[in-house]
What we know:
mainly alpha, 67% helix
Amino acid sequence: MLRKLSTHADKEKLASNKLLEDVLAQKIGTDKARRVFGPIVGAYDMRVGDAHPTSSKIGDALKLAEIDQSKSFLRQGEQLISNFGRSIWWIGKLLFEQTKEPSE
Length: 104
């Protein structure tokens, strides 16, 4: 379904995260979509970095996920979950919220 909605030139090669980001970008612009999607991309990059530590860029992933590395690991985990959830909430709001037309 995301592939059908996407207008990206390489949509056949993109995975779901990039496709959803592209669909969101069509509505709110590329820069804003990237900011909203940052924690999701960061969490994904941490997962990939954990599975492939030699190619890992965990520091960049933590920044994208908006994790404060000065906090305890417990608080960092809490931030990751909260930031990821906030991104999902914003994506839903931005894609599906109906804006009311001003009354005439």
